[in-house]
């Protein structure tokens, strides 16, 4: 790739449509993406109470196929992907040899010997390179399919009804973290019951040339129930309320899954060796002996918004650091996720504050998530 190519901002198949809707665009991981169309608060509330439509085409799809696809993924990732049934998906991670998290992923098993790995936009190249490198000696192919898909999500309590009006696929039988092929508004799609909002919803993987047609069909189908287009800004406040980690904030190469409180994704009992096994076993033992800092929720007593990197304090000492913070449209007050010393991590812990430009603003420690939808 030449330097000019690498610095060129990428556009999704829906770019012109976003602009026609008056979207405020922003550079996100090298992609020009809609930040918001109107009010991010209104977009957030629409997803919580009705439905929202998102362009997620910046996510990185990587196909792993061949007789040893399952063995390769079991070696390359921390999860047991061989145990995932066809048509199901799994949240997992890819780690370095030292146990640091390279990315968190969703992996779909499309067929017996075919998987789709979905990486975060900012890490897609890193994940691709790592999978290619780790594929040496396996009878499996790693294919960069980032340009082969557009990804459109419809999220919120009205999303099943909207989608049902456009497809014959068995949505009622589609469990959370499962995917099935089907036609949506006549467009061939992989329909996945996944999302990053804390609401019921679907992510639709389609060819880029079908993206505009599908977006418009979903928009029309949702007109009567309050569906609105949504940008990255409300996606962030929705995932924050739902206590979902964001790479570069709650997850990084300086943390192992055990440091992030997500040790459950590491499957030591699976067959064969995997990258990072030794370091992760040591991290698991350390975590048991001396609990690392714990990811907690913080709810503001005042109006000032904490941001990533702000110090969490108690009794004049620094006890942690904010990883994500924003005003919560659902709670009506500022919230944050932060890693804090285990001694201060219990919900209801008194005397905890956030250092906001020298002033120690009081915060209540709460269990995550801040918001859980009624099933």
Quaternary assembly? single chain
Ranges where pLDDT stays below 50 over 5 or more residues in a row are: 1-5
Q: Tell me, what's the shape?
A: globular
Report the structural category: alpha+beta
Mean pLDDT value: 96
CATH architecture of the domain at 7-57 and 149-241: 2-Layer Sandwich
How would a textbook summarize the main sheet?
A: 6 strands, mixed
What keywords describe this structure?
375 residues, Elongation Factor Tu (Ef-tu), domain 3, six-stranded mixed β-sheet, six-stranded antiparallel barrel, 9 helices, disordered N terminus
Report on this structure.
It is a single chain. α3 packs across α8 (232-241). The chain is built from nine helices and 20 strands. A six-stranded mixed beta sheet has the order 11-12-13-10-4-14, sandwiched between helices. It has helices spanning 3-7, 15-20, 40-49, 69-76, 124-134, 159-164, 211-222, 232-241, 277-289; strands spanning 10-11, 24-28, 31-36, 51-55, 60-65, 89-95, 101-111, 114-119, 141-144, 150-155, 179-184, 187-192, 201-206, 227-229, 294-300, 311-314, 317-328, 333-340, 352-356, 359-366. Mean pLDDT is 96; it is low at 1-5. Among the domains are: 7-57 and 149-241, Gyrase A, domain 2, CATH 3.30.1360.120; 293-375, Aminomethyltransferase beta-barrel domains (Elongation Factor Tu (Ef-tu), domain 3, Beta Barrel). The protein is α+β, with helices and mostly antiparallel strands and 375 residues long.
Short description:
The chain is of the alpha+beta class and 375 residues long. Among the domains are: 7-57 and 149-241, Gyrase A, domain 2 (2-Layer Sandwich), CATH 3.30.1360; 293-375, Aminomethyltransferase beta-barrel domains (Elongation Factor Tu (Ef-tu), domain 3), CATH 2.40.30.110.
């Amino acid at each position: 790739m030449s330097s000019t190519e690498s610095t060129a901002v990428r556009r999704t198949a829906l770019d012109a449509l976003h602009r026609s809707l008056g979207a405020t665009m922003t550079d996100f991981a090298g992609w020009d993406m809609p930040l918001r169309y109107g009010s991010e608060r209104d977009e957030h509330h629409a997803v919580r109470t009705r439905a929202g439509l998102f362009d997620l085409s910046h996510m990185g799809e990587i196909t792993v196929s061949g007789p040893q696809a399952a063995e390769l993924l079991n070696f390359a990732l921390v999860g047991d992907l061989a145990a995932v049934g066809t048509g199901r998906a799994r949240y997992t991670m890819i780690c370095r040899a030292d146990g640091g998290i390279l990315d968190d992923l969703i992996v779909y098993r499309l067929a017996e010997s075919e998987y789709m790995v979905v990486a975060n936009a900012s890490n897609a190249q890193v994940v691709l390179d790592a999978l290619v490198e780790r594929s040496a000696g396996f009878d499996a192919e790693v294919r960069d399919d980032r340009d082969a898909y557009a990804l459109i999500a419809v999220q919120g309590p009205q999303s099943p009804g909207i989608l049902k009006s456009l497809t014959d696929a068995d949505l009622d039988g589609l469990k959370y973290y499962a995917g099935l092929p089907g036609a949506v508004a006549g467009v061939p799609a992989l329909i996945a019951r996944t999302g990053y909002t804390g609401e019921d919803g679907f992510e639709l993987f389609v060819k880029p040339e079908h993206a505009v047609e599908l977006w418009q069909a979903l928009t029309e189908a949702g007109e009567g129930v309050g569906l609105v287009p949504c940008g990255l800004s409300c996606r962030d406040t929705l995932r924050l309320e739902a206590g979902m980690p964001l790479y570069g904030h709650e997850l990084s190469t300086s943390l192992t899954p055990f440091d992030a409180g997500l040790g459950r994704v590491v499957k030591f009992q699976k067959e064969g060796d995997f990258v990072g096994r030794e370091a992760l076993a040591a991290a698991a033992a350390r975590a048991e002996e001396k609990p690392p800092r714990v990811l907690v929720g913080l709810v503001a007593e005042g109006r000032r918004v904490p941001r990533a990197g702000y110090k969490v304090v108690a009794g004049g000492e620094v006890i942690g650091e904010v990883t994500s913070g924003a005003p919560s449209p659902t709670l009506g007050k500022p919230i944050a996720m932060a890693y804090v010393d285990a001694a201060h991590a219990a919900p209801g812990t008194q005397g905890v504050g956030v250092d906001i430009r020298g002033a120690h603003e009081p915060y209540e420690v709460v269990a995550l998530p801040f918001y859980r939808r009624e099933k």
